Amino acid sequence: MKLLEHQGKAVFAEAGITVPASRLVSVEPGGAGQALRERTAEAARELGAASGGSAASATSATSPAGAEDTEGVSDERGVVVKAQVTAGGRGKAGLIRTAGSPEEAGEAAEAILSRDATVRALLVEEMVSIERELYLSISVDAPSARFLILASASGGVEIETLALEQPEQVKRVEVDPFLGLQAYQSRGLAFDLGLSGDTAKQFAKVLGALYEVFRSRDAELAEINPLFVTSSGRLVAGDSKLIIDDNSLDRQKEFEITREQFGTETEYAAALEGIPYVQFEGDISLMCAGAGLTTTVYDLVQFEGGTVANYLEFGGPNYRKARRAMELCLENKSKVILIVTFGTIARADVMAEGIVEAIAELKPDRPIVTCIRGTNEESATQTLRDAGIEPLLDTEEAVRTAVAIAKGERQ
Questions:
Q1: In this structure, is residue 267 part of a structural domain?
Q2: In this structure, is residue 235 part of a structural domain?
Q3: 248, 267, 293: which is the final residue of a domain?
Q4: Which pTM value belongs to this model?
Q5: Three-class SS of residue 56?
Q6: Among the four 62, 73, 321, 351, which has the fewest Cβ within 10 Å?
């Protein structure tokens, strides 16, 4: 589960990480309008009033942090209005705007909604006087079975691009899960980033707090980009990215799946069903069983010159959800649905029966290519043939067939 910025910052603040004071403004159905401008302007006024005009010591409305946590963060007037969506690149997309007055904040809110009408919440946040920006994240490194800390003195940029073009700018620290983050690792990383004195001490504390968030929240990723170093020498989380492992949601009960966390209605519906789903804009809808197999099929489609409309994985506990999975695929404007499974625990015959029932009930308006393998494969193959569906038994052949159909080279 990807948390929205304001949710992640609330968790950060609870852990002792300084965040800018802010107010959350909900966006009613219908989006932009006078009411939205007024609510956003009022949020900006509240921040200014709470800080004596500079938004310096206001308490964040999205966290329990007190004034002592944000005091002295901002040295100038103004607010930043941010769309609360999980997609990256908000600044480039025009979904983050600055405003020098409450009235301008209202105008910024309307401008954001004109760019993306699906936005359902805005974060109005105090403007921070920035001296420099850092990058900091913690994730899981599966090959080494360790936690991986990435940090850079060049924050506010796409870390993937930086790591590719200037790898020496990205510092790496591996943490043994059984030993935990050690003090010398935090201090050493601070010095590697060129920090010293009180700033280095603050960085070590921020890293320790972020590590605690990462562990206690069952996170797959905990990221601050950018981590501001203000003109007054404070470290402030300028943004938050916190991804909670879906398998831990029974423990992380405070987090609920909401529409705002997803870019499309289909992704939201899939999440409610517990079906892993990612939206793309290609021609071939993938409906596969097994995350590794789905990823492999995605790569094969790209290799054959095709494009993927969606990633959908209905294996494991979802292997009886063929009808719902196909229903989600049909919500795309794809040209073909490619179904590839390899059932072991998830039986091939059960998936084949579900696919046949789904086709009979949903009457899909596009070709369907199937490659159903695994436990009780013979029965699965017969079930498909009885329903008038010719099953393929080679994954690469199935991919080539789907790509050819998508390109109009065969029916």
A1: no
A2: yes
A3: 248
A4: 0.77
A5: coil
A6: 321
